[in-house]
Amino acid sequence: MEKKSGLIFAYLLDEQGGGQLWNWEKVENWSPDQGLIWIHIDFSDDYAMEWLHKKSGLSEVVCEALVEEGTRPRINTTPDGTLIILRGVNCNPGADPDDMVGLRMLLSDRRIITMRQRRIMAVDDVRRTVETGDGPVSVGDFFVMVAERIVNRTGDVIVDIDDRVDEIEDSVLTGETADLRPKLADLRRQSISLRRYIAPQRDMLSRMLVEKVAFVDDRDRMLLKEIAERTARYVEDIDAARERAGITQEELNNRLSEQMNKAMYLLSIVAAIFLPLGLITGLLGINVGGIPGTENHLAFVFVTLGLVIVALALVAVFRRIKWL
Fold first, then answer.
1. Whole-angstrom Cα distance, residue 229 to residue 5?
2. Fewest C-beta atoms under 10 Å: which of 4, 25, 94, 103?
């Protein structure tokens, strides 16, 4: 008997906020007259892919589009339904939020198919609403609920990035520059990764507001407008964070360069003071006859005092010409 796996969950939605949990057998025997069904599968599973290609009734073109690798957010209308790809921040334990996870959806009048490889918390949120009877009542309502939760979590990550930029800026201003360069580099990397997917997601949501989408009614369009505006603000926030991080990086480089210049300047002054002293001691230490003071037991004291006087005189000269 063939082992059936890859079905994360499936619900026959009652279109009043609740739903009945189904297994593979019921999913495979479902017909549109039974009601609206939501099928959530792991497309890295072999049986799930067999069902998608051979038993779902979808065309091969749509199936290939659903499992295409490295896709960015987009929306396409097909004879089998509306194909939508969304990206959400990675909230899985131990994962980087900017390693965004993809959610692939095919939405039709009586069937919702969602697919993923890595766990998506927004989908889990919507599932819990179904279990409590507060779930989606239509296909459009489902999409709005998923999109809203994806955007909410994205906003949380962007707020965290802004807070971290603030902390780094404060550290630079107060002179606490230790380990700031890798932190800034990590922030800029995260911002670039997030923007790579959030910007096309903003464009996709904006497109849904102006184009006719089969499952979107006036209420859904009003909610999608708010979600699209928030997504646009998040893109602007990411751009602002990147710009602030760049400016902070320049300020940090300037401060580090200034510190280096001060250190080099101080070393130059020390070298300028000790250069003549070294010359004098070098002359007194040459191995030839006629060096004065070789027979005087106080000669070392006199030489030392002379060197001190020369050093003090050089310091006084440097101060007078404002080198010190």
1. 39
2. 94
